[in-house]
């Protein structure tokens, strides 16, 4: 049976967090861009807000993942 070290588990959690952050940031950026182009006369605030929401959700997921006891 292969032995897994705590450092390896922590590294995998960090990798998942970074991937999740990039995906959620990109999704928020894309969604904010669409809303900016279609509804808000090309303002910057929907893009910034969408990106911020994406990063906030990813941060919450990462915090929960890193603080779990498993």
Description:
Keywords: Membrane, Mitochondrion, Mitochondrion inner membrane, Transmembrane, Transmembrane helix. Its main location: mitochondrion. This protein is mainly alpha-helical. It has a domain at 27-69. The chain is 80% helix and 0% strand. Helix 1 (6-38) runs antiparallel to helix 2 (45-67). The model has no long low-confidence stretch (mean pLDDT 90).
Shape: elongated
* Low-confidence residue ranges: none
Classification by helices and strands = mainly alpha
In total, the number of strands is 0
Distance between the termini: 19 Å
Q: What is the chain-wise order of helices and strands?
A: HH
Query: Main beta sheet, described?
Result: none
Helix content: over 70%
- Measured by DSSP, the beta-strand proportion falls in under 5%
Overall pLDDT level: 90
Cα gyration radius (Å): 16 Å
Put simply, the count of helices is 2
What is the structure about, briefly put?
80% of the residues lie in helices and 0% in strands.
Main attributes?
70 residues; 0% strand
Write the layout of secondary structure elements.
Blueprint: H1 6-38, H2 45-67
């Amino acid at each position: 049976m292969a032995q897994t070290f705590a450092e390896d588990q922590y590294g995998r959690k960090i990798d998942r967090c970074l991937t999740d952050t990039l995906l959620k940031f990109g999704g928020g950026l894309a969604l904010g861009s669409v809303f900016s182009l279609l509804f808000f006369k090309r303002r910057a605030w929907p893009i910034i807000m969408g990106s911020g929401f994406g990063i906030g959700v990813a941060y919450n997921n990462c915090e929960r993942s890193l603080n779990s006891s498993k």
